[in-house]
């Protein structure tokens, strides 16, 4: 019997066993791989669970920190108000009241700002209002006097004093006469506060000029902060701001600020085509020694520019030989030719010896608050609304002292003034010839060039 069929059958069975064993090995290997993969996934899951738990804890800590920071940010909210004195001008009623007017203006503006914030920015709760007005005080005071708003430039200093003393965060800053000084200061201060987290709004009271237009246009490029900026309109905005003003919120306070510029009612003769006034006639016997008066100044003029105290002398001495005699009268065709006395350098010289004026008499007259326009020039251009005295009867000696008081306020045209009726001062009354300073030093109200003036009169300019 042949064994080949059996051998074939054996080999077939052996092949099947071999396939079975291979299958078992493959299954075992697969199980091992799956177990390893499961362990890796299990580790990853455990790691992610721990990570998520840590993230949740960290998120809770961050939320607490954010809440604390928000509480800190909301703790002292404030808004900043930056005003250019060229365009933001308080109404005449405030300026004419001097120090009391400054207090009233500060209070009324604060009340107006507070009401505006509550109405238009409700998200800001009880903010402090930090207000700074940048102003050329000297130029503004003289402009107000020439416009008939006030009778004494010293009232502006009183107004500023009252304004600065009233509200803790409100002040008027004297920036001098440099061009664009207010614009520069406002732009620099604006950048400091714009990104301050406690500052919720910046108000800008700007003038209508190309510099502010460019500044506001550049601010618009940052869309994230545009809503943090508002404008305050005092004098009516003109065409220079037409392209940008529609992009900003605009606040107006007509009960506090003027909407039009003050218009001068008096300028020096060489500045105007109108005939010069002839209200002050020199005494014929003292024609060449009369001091040339200027614009009005009140008897309460600040003495800060006077420097050292005036020497006290007896009234009899002054009455016997005054430097000049003032006779107030209306102009007439027969009035003498008016003159302006000058030294060899062509500088105007006010012939007035302050050392001859009794200090007690001077202080007494200052307290009377007399209208210098009325008593020295013969009429007051703002008589109906003038707060100074027009009714008192003055002696020649008192008129002499009143003229000296008026000279304590510097004339804006300085040594070049050609107005024979100018009652302002053209040289520092406390400066001696040849000395370029006085007792007050840098705080003197007169310019450095007005010190050390040669008082020897060598020529007379006829007007």
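Q: What amino acid sequence fits the structure above?
A:
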């Amino acid at each position: 019997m042949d064994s080949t069929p059996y051998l074939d059958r054996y080999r077939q069975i052996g092949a099947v066993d071999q396939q079975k064993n291979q299958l078992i090995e493959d299954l075992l290997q697969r199980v091992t791989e799956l177990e390893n993969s499961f362990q890796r996934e299990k580790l990853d899951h455990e790691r992610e669970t721990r990570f998520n738990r840590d993230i949740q804890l960290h998120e809770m800590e961050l939320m607490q920190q954010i809440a604390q920071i928000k509480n800190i940010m909301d703790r002292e909210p404030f808004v900043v108000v930056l005003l250019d004195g060229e365009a933001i001008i308080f109404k005449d009623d405030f300026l004419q009241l001097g120090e009391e007017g400054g207090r009233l203006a500060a209070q009324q503006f604060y009340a107006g700002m507070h009401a505006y914030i509550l109405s238009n920015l409700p998200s800001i709760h009880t903010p402090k209002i930090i207000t700074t007005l940048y102003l050329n005080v000297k130029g503004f005071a003289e402009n107000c006097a020439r416009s008939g708003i006030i009778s004494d430039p010293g009232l502006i200093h009183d107004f500023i004093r009252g304004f600065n003393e009233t509200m803790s965060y409100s002040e008027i800053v004297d920036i001098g006469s440099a061009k664009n000084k207010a614009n520069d200061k406002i732009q620099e201060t604006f950048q400091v506060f714009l990104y301050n987290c406690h500052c919720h709004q910046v108000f800008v009271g700007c003038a209508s000029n190309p510099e502010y237009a460019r500044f506001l246009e550049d601010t618009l490029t940052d869309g994230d902060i545009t809503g943090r900026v508002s404008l305050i309109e005092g004098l009516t905005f003109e065409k220079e701001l037409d392209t940008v003003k529609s992009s900003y919120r605009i606040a107006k306070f007509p009960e506090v600020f003027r909407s039009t510029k003050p218009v001068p009612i008096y300028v020096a003769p060489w500045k105007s085509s109108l005939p010069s006034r002839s209200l002050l006639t020199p005494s014929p016997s003292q024609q060449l020694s009369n001091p040339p008066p200027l614009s009005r100044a009140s008897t309460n003029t600040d003495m800060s520019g006077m420097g050292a105290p005036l020497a006290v002398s007896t009234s009899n001495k002054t009455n016997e030989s005054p430097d000049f005699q003032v006779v107030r009268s209306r102009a007439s065709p027969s009035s003498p030719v008016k003159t302006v006395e000058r030294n060899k350098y062509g500088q105007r010289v006010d012939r007035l010896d302050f050392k001859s004026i009794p200090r007690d008499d001077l202080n007494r007259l200052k307290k009377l608050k007399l209208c210098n326009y009325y008593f020295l020039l013969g009429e007051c251009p703002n008589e109906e609304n003038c707060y100074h005295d027009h009714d008192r009867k003055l002696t020649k000696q008192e008129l002499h002292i009143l003229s000296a008081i008026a000279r304590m306020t510097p004339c804006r045209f300085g040594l070049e003034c050609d107005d024979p009726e100018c009652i302002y001062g053209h040289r520092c009354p406390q400066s001696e010839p040849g000395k370029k300073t006085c007792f007050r030093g840098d705080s003197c109200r007169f310019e450095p060039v007005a010190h050390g003036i040669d008082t020897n009169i060598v020529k007379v300019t006829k007007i």
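Q: And what stands out in the fold?
A: Confidence is low (pLDDT under 50) at residues 267-334.
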